[in-house]
Design a protein that fits this description.
This is Curli production assembly/transport component CsgG. The chain has helices at 2-19, 39-55, 67-77, 151-160, 163-177, 183-205, 282-290; strands at residues 23-27, 59-62, 99-114, 117-130, 136-143, 208-215, 222-225, 238-249, 252-268, 274-278, 296-299. The protein has 300 residues and is an alpha+beta fold. It is globular and about 60 Å long.
Length: 300
């Protein structure tokens, strides 16, 4: 039994290390209906989508439009004048992408619900293609619908936030759901939940495993997580608490991460470490730990 647990913990560690090697992606220009969507709106939406991928910290984004400039700079730096310089452009900057992100803006609707009260909704479709095969690996439709925190999460927030901090969270939620005085302001407001939803989608496409380093002996629901700023961890982020195992199907050993609960990031210490607290299923998780079962975290 101990050997099995040790193997699973080791396997979980290997997956965590592999997950930190980011996938390289490039973006194709998003298509849209020019009759109903302005070029300026399309540009802003595309930038929001790209920034969502960057903010997720799961990818190295290659700017295809600037690759030619980078290649010229690299050629210049290979000349004799730069041979002894340490400040050269790394070859990795010009490398090709593993995946292409192709997308289309389905709709941008600005609606006046009453006088000087506007709402906006943005909907985009994102397709991820394998560069080597052209195969569509995933198709997702993402919109600007605001998703509020659950009651469990708000309960935890109240425990850790000051009254002013929690009030700011509630005010932000209200601002993102209330109508705006102009259509342009409503559009700008809609970009915020669109960005948040893009980040969630990108993380779900490439979830990252992380180790639980240790549990707090005094605050028994809190634990130190082996992931920080470098992995895109942010205060207030929700992560899955999982029980990793290996399932043999035919001649393949497949990694299974059974979700046994969720946790909320309460502090990010540095690039590699953060602190989280359990949101739910505390009793079952602690029972599994007592039995010596491996417990880890999956960051989506």
């Amino acid at each position: 039994m101990k050997n099995t647990i040790t193997f699973l913990c080791l396997l979980f560690s290997i997956l965590a290390i592999k997950a930190q090697n980011r996938t390289t992606i490039a973006f194709l220009p998003m298509s849209y209906d020019e009759a109903s969507i302005s070029s300026n709106e399309a540009r802003i939406v595309q930038e929001t989508v790209i920034n969502g991928f960057v903010s997720s910290k799961r990818f190295t984004v290659v700017d295809r439009e600037k690759l030619e400039e980078i290649e010229k700079e690299k050629s210049l730096q290979r000349t004799e004048a730069f041979m002894d310089s340490d400040n050269t452009v790394a070859d990795g900057l010009g490398k090709g992408a593993n995946f292409l992100v192709d997308g289309s803006i389905i709709a941008i609707s600005n609606s006046e619900i009453k006088k000087n009260k506007w709402t906006s909704n943005i909907s985009v479709q994102i397709r991820m293609l394998d560069v080597s095969t052209g195969e569509i690996l995933s198709t997702e439709t993402v919109n600007s619908t605001f998703i509020s925190y659950s009651g469990d999460v708000k309960k935890v927030m109240k425990s850790y936030y000051s009254k002013d901090e929690f009030k700011r969270v509630e005010e932000k939620e209200e601002r993102l759901q209330d109508p705006s005085p102009t259509s342009s302001e409503a559009f700008n407001v809609a970009l915020i939940p669109l960005s948040d939803n893009i980040i969630k989608i990108t993380r779900s496409l490439f979830p990252m495993a992380a180790q639980i380093i240790s549990w707090d002996k005094k605050k028994k629901d809190e634990f130190i997580l082996g992931a920080g700023h470098a992995s895109g961890i942010q205060i207030g982020q929700i992560v899955d608490v999982v029980k990793p195992s290996t399932v043999v199907i035919g001649d393949k050993d497949l990694q299974r991460n059974e979700i046994v609960g969720s946790a909320w990031i309460i502090r990010v210490d540095d690039q590699n470490f953060s602190v989280a607290t359990l949101i739910n299923n505390q009793k079952d998780i602690k029972k599994a730990i007592k039995k010596g079962e491996p417990i880890g975290v999956l960051i989506r």
